[in-house]
């Protein structure tokens, strides 16, 4: 079967870039990305390409080439479903904030809505691809909804988890380590799997396209994210020990990373991992393990999150301790709010939690991030519901000029590893600050020796 028409439900961080690259690489396939969020779709269609709603290096060029050629963004969800042979579901699956599984299980309400909408609209057979990260056995749930409410048409469900990382999404999509496709292990299932394999084979070597059963595919995605997060928590645990013992975590990372069995990537100690996936996927894994009575397995993975929470709290409390046990009324500058560099995404960013702890100590915070908008910063901190939004606005200012931000500041905390922070005129910053001037590098990117020569009191993670 040859796919000519693809629809993707959800125009977010996953659906948007993924479909843009499919369209870019497969000019013969019409790709329509739909979303209920009208503003988002409008932004994807903006004539000024720099206004597309997601910032990713290289994405603008890809969208500029494919858009209105074979890549379309629309709010007409039903029409796009009707026309497509293959439908990707790429809607958000946040952790449940209510009821059974609250704080742990994935909230599947958006997925279920999509499945019901597909079922009600479809008049021809469809291949439905789950692209969002979902708990193991979601495909089964989608299939059950589709088969029982459909119009007698046949649905084939595939799991095709996305492994792109934000900030490098375009490169990850153009040149993936592997593509994983899970499907039913029967004749119809193989036909559906092969249809999707053929789409990717337009630019990915077939040896890198793995096919498995649905459940292996779903579990692989959760496991990959759990392992990656575990590496960060493991090195962060060692960073705490380094700070007490005189070892340097950068040296330890390098030394262990040269062991080819361990590998050098993903061993950067930091203020803590963030992003929409790691915590959510581990919580999911924990929830699934518990639901099968595997309590030891659940506890093992839960520790990765506990260590991450500890690292964020530890960073905040180190600031307070170092500033003579009080930050009340003191201005502290945050360089960076995004959960990592080269993205405007702030979901679960460590900065949010560090800010919350410091606000509890009555600090004043000035936030500078090159890509994050003011309202997003306030939304993030308001969402914690720790204090009123009036109080949050009173104690947090969001600024456009990092040098202005540092005027009369007592301390600077580096929360995101944006490259531009490395090349700042630190003497100019020093001159504007209260003395002693403190820098807390939560990302180990700043040249500490240089700052100490200027006169800063410089602290970083794991040293
Ligand atoms: C280990 C370290 O590898 C080595 O660098 C250090 O100097 C000493 O400790 P060793 O204990 O000799 O070496 O063997 P290793 O190959 O690491 O295996 C340790 C145990 O882990 C074995 O029981 C092995 O069967 C088990 N293992 C290893 C697994 O169960 N799965 C694996 O994937 C790898
Ligand atoms: C992650 C996975 O990498 C990706 O495969 C999956 O599809 C989605 O989840 P993402 O969350 O976009 O991607 O970014 P990632 O680069 O994995 O970073 C996650 C967090 O870990 C960031 O906050 C980052 O700063 C932090 N991190 C990463 C570290 O603190 N140290 C490291 O060594 C690596
Ligand atoms: P992700 O990082 O998984 O891509 P995002 O939140 O960035 O998550 O994107 C998910 C998108 O899915 C949002 O733009 C949201 O409006 C959209 N969405 C959620 N539910 C539906 C639905 N039932 N129909 C269409 N779009 C939906």
UniProtKB/TrEMBL annotation:
It catalyses: UDP-alpha-D-glucose + 2 NAD(+) + H2O = UDP-alpha-D-glucuronate + 2 NADH + 3 H(+). Substrate binds at residues 162-166, 221-225, 261, 268-274, 339-340, 443. It is an enzyme of class 1 (oxidoreductase). Residues 333-448 form the UDP-glucose/GDP-mannose dehydrogenase C-terminal domain. It comes from the Bacteria. NAD(+) binds at residues 10-15, 35, 40, 91-95, 132-133, 166, 277-280, 347. Keywords: NAD, Oxidoreductase. Its EC number is 1.1.1.22. GO terms for molecular function: NAD binding; UDP-glucose 6-dehydrogenase activity. Pathway: Nucleotide-sugar biosynthesis; UDP-alpha-D-glucuronate biosynthesis; UDP-alpha-D-glucuronate from UDP-alpha-D-glucose: step 1/1. The active site is at 277 (nucleophile). One of its GO terms (biological process) is UDP-glucuronate biosynthetic process. Belongs to the UDP-glucose/GDP-mannose dehydrogenase family. Catalyzes the conversion of UDP-glucose into UDP-glucuronate, one of the precursors of teichuronic acid. This is UDP-glucose 6-dehydrogenase.
